[in-house]
Design brief:
Helix content is 22%, strand content 21%. With 627 residues, it is of the alpha/beta class. Strands 1-2-3-4-5-6-7-8 form an eight-stranded parallel beta barrel, surrounded by six helices. Strands 10, 11, 13, 16, 17 and 19 form a six-stranded antiparallel sheet that branches. A five-stranded antiparallel sheet has the order 9-12-18-14-15, with no helix packed on it. Helix 6 links the parallel strand 5 and strand 6. Helix 4 packs parallel to helix 5 and helix 7 runs parallel beside helix 8. The chain starts with 62 loop residues before the first strand and ends with a strand.
Length: 627
């Protein structure tokens, strides 16, 4: 996923969520009605309840894609999708709906063997070759091309997880490269033989930090070359053009030039440099354009965004918490929380890719059809039964992000398994009715004018935050340097285990200013942050402000001060003040009182955090003043 710092990793741990969150049920009923053939003109059925300015200069062959990897598992779970007239759709009708809305490419992930030793599915859509073949045929029959996304893993591969398939575990590197070549070639040959129109192949998924269990670039590039060779050979045999894409993420870290240099230096044969871009985590669109343009201009590659999405609500409807929710809260919502906002977000991303020039070839929306099995309402009398029904289906069919059976392969799934973590980012309501965002790509190409009687969609508001004052009493002088972390000075950060802590620019998590001291990691972690000051005799207050969450009962979150040596045992410090993680923008004010008895005494003040994987938080506006 990226350099594992701060909350950023929470992204593609889109599929990584904790306990159930409270929710209000705006929809009722359960999906599961039988499908029937749709006969209406889907291209004109959408209500004009959004307004979109047409984006000029979009090439006719520009990829406007949708990742539908979970569709087969959703349908097998009893989910029904509808058209804008309320008619239930069969498979052909569903794909026609999306094609009429402007989707011309379907992205599908492929896992090697997403089952345990007894054949139980790991979930996440159960994306084995048979499932991918069935889905690829449906896309092809609807006139769409397929972007085949090899994860080269038995389950989710992303910046935080790049585990080799079980069958390849322990192989010598040369043997793994051969196995990867064979799997790529045989899978692609099978799909083409079944009539699937594969137009692009991704060799790896979000390989920023590794591939098949290795993070060494020279080994990664050998594996990539093996996959590329297989695709080129099959394309030549079939006398067809198939583009080869590599897929990275975290453009905000401005490392794309470095990754492209590695690929060039080690001779990896590919056509497209693809990026993920989620507006919650990945920085500005101007920077996205700059990073993609750097690769396009320097190395002559095509570029695209292979994954993006946005929320139309912050409410969860399946009883399993979403990646983006009001309770999480620390991510950035730059667009309306509505279908209008979803369209606006995709339009902005398309504009950023097109700004690269002719090398910018496409954008793909991630999982717009991954909705609940049955709609869950915590306030309903049958809430427990609905959730149990959902859980049973997720476990047996695999239409949730993970089953408990995946825990033996993926440690996260052992703790967190269940439904969709992104049902609030779909193009459909929780019970399968299309939102106006189903027509996202059509509207971006052609524009959309509000129909008579409509006003611009009223967006769901971002939760308000309580204002907190950090003014010191009686005009006291703050004796700390850089107390608000607005500069990379004065504080020493010691990540003892993990890489959780960093000073980061994040206005969603500051008390004041633009920077704060943030932490998050996907492993258990401990860190100490210190600053040493010289004080005269007297009574001093050392304190600050803290927000956080998901730290559990075992975490230790504290400010400390000591005139002695700093150690990783916080209880050896002379003064401590503990705090607790109470949620996003719920600021606690830990403060300790210390007595300095001699003039010119050197004192070290700081922050100590020891927390489990997934714990997050931010310190800001620390202070030290004399009474």
């Amino acid at each position: 996923m990226r350099h594992m710092r701060g909350f950023e990793m929470m992204k593609k741990q889109r599929l990584f969520y904790g306990a159930m969150i409270l929710m209000a049920g705006l929809l009722a009923g359960c999906a599961g009605a039988s499908s029937e053939q749709n006969n209406v003109d889907l291209s004109t059925a959408a209500a004009p309840d959004v307004e979109v300015e047409a984006l000029s200069g979009i090439p006719e062959d520009f990829m406007t894609g949708a990742d539908l990897s979970s569709y087969i598992a959703e349908k097998e779970s009893g989910v029904t999708y509808y058209d804008f007239e309320g008619n239930a759709l069969d498979d052909a009708g569903f794909f026609k709906l999306l094609a009429d809305g402007g989707v011309n490419y379907v992205r599908i992930r492929l896992w090697n063997d997403p089952t345990d030793d007894k054949g139980h599915t790991y979930g996440g859509g159960h994306c084995d070759l048979d499932t991918v073949t069935e889905l690829g045929k449906l896309a092809t029959q609807a006139g769409m091309k397929v972007l085949l996304d090899f994860h080269y893993s038995d389950f989710w591969a992303d910046p935080g997880k790049q585990k080799a398939p079980k069958a390849w575990d322990g192989m010598a590197h040369e043997d793994m490269a051969q196995a990867l070549y064979d799997f790529t070639k045989e899978s692609l040959q099978h799909l083409l033989a079944e009539g699937v129109d594969v137009g692009m192949v991704q060799i790896g998924n979000e390989i920023t930090n590794g591939l098949c269990g290795t993070s060494y670039h020279h080994l990664m590039t050998e594996l990539l070359s093996a996959g590329s060779k297989a695709v080129r050979e099959v394309a030549a045999e079939e006398e067809r053009e198939i583009l080869i894409a590599v897929h990275y993420t975290n453009p905000e870290e401005e490392n794309y030039g470095e990754y492209a240099d590695y690929l060039d230096r080690y001779g990896v044969d590919y056509d497209v440099f693809a990026s993920s871009y989620y507006p919650y985590w990945h920085g500005t669109l101007e920077n996205l354009t700059a990073q993609l343009a750097l690769v396009a201009d320097t190395y002559g590659k095509k570029v695209m965004v292979a994954e993006t999405s946005y929320v139309h609500t912050l409410t969860d409807y399946d009883g399993a918490a979403n990646t983006e929710s009001a309770e999480k809260g620390f991510d950035t919502f730059d667009y309306d929380i509505s279908a209008q906002g979803q369209i606006d977000e995709v339009r902005a991303v398309m504009q950023a890719v097109l700004a690269v020039g002719e090398a910018g070839i496409g954008v793909c929306y991630w999982e717009p059809a991954w909705i609940p099995v049955s709609v869950y309402d915590e306030t309903s009398a049958d809430a427990a039964q609905v959730f149990a029904h959902n859980q049973e289906i997720w476990e047996t069919i695999g239409s949730g992000w993970a089953t408990s059976y995946a825990g033996a392969y993926d440690k996260d799934a052992a703790l967190y398994y269940g439904g969709s973590a992104v049902d609030n980012e779909a193009w459909f309501t929780a019970d399968g009715h299309p939102l106006s965002s189903v027509n996202t790509y059509k509207y971006i190409r052609e524009g959309a004018t509000l129909g008579e009687g409509y006003s611009r969609m009223e967006a769901e508001p971002v939760p308000e935050v309580e204002e907190v004052s950090s003014d010191l009493p009686g005009g006291a002088v703050n004796l700390l340097a850089n107390p608000g972390f607005e500069e990379e000075t004065a504080w020493e950060i010691h990540n003892l285990t993990g890489e959780a802590c960093a000073i980061e620019d994040d206005t969603n998590n500051v008390l004041n200013g633009e920077y704060c001291l943030k932490f998050w990691d996907n492993v258990d972690f401990t860190f100490i942050v210190t600053q040493t000051v010289t004080l005269d005799a007297g009574t001093y207050h050392y304190g600050g402000w803290f927000e956080g969450g998901d730290c559990g009962d075992s975490a230790r979150l504290a400010l400390f001060a000591t005139t002695g040596e700093v150690t990783d045992n916080i209880d050896e410090a002379e003064y401590t003040a503990d705090t607790t993680a109470q949620g996003w923008r719920t600021w606690d004010n830990p403060e300790l009182l210390m007595e300095i008895v001699e003039d010119v005494t050197e004192v070290t003040v700081g922050v100590f955090v020891q927390a489990p994987a997934g714990g997050w938080g931010a310190f800001d506006d620390l202070y030290l003043y004399k009474e």
